[in-house]
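hi! just following up on the protien thing from before. the input was this:
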Amino acid sequence: MIWQNYKLGNTISKTPEPVTLWKTERCIIEISSDTLAVPIKLDDEEKGYVLHGHGKLLLDAIVETGEGAIGKSIEKELDEPFLMLGDTKEMQEHFTESSKEDFAAMDYENQQEFLDKAEDLCSRFFREREHNHQSFDGDHGFIFAFPNEAENLDILVAKNSKLVYKAEDVVFVSNKDKVVLKSQGEVVCKNNGKSVVIKKDKSVIIKKTLF
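and the predicted 3d structure came back as:
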């Protein structure tokens, strides 16, 4: 996808029932019923959505090491508009027509106010990707972008068992039994039962895990 060529669709839909957007052993992203959705298009083909409703991101960012468990479970309430890019075919089956009441329920005066907020989110996301010369296509799985309290975007990239999550204070990468966790105090790497912990004071601990 060439980022600057995107545009938003004209039709705003909603989810008549809760939908699970992504689920693995480590991560689940869910949205509630009555979540608003506007498609993101490239050459008239849907490539994703801006979604606004109520939902939740749960991510197990805990790494079991010889020093014990490091990291924490991340729980993020999805009450602000967020972006999802990827294969939309399955998602299209979950939408129905939205109404004025649906916009009012999310504190919008009208449809245009939601579109303006969606456009602002897309502009922030795509401008940053273009600046960093990053591209995306369907082979990359899914990308999610969630606004955070610092008015930046937390990014989650997911494909099959591979997962990358980048937020203000943590970076978490997981692919089956390979895990990397970077926080403000330390970096943890785990591969095939062996763990490496690099502390902020530059000390290094290498141990076999207990399993």
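The two ends are 42 Å apart (CA to CA).
The chain is about 15% helix and 50% strand.
cheers
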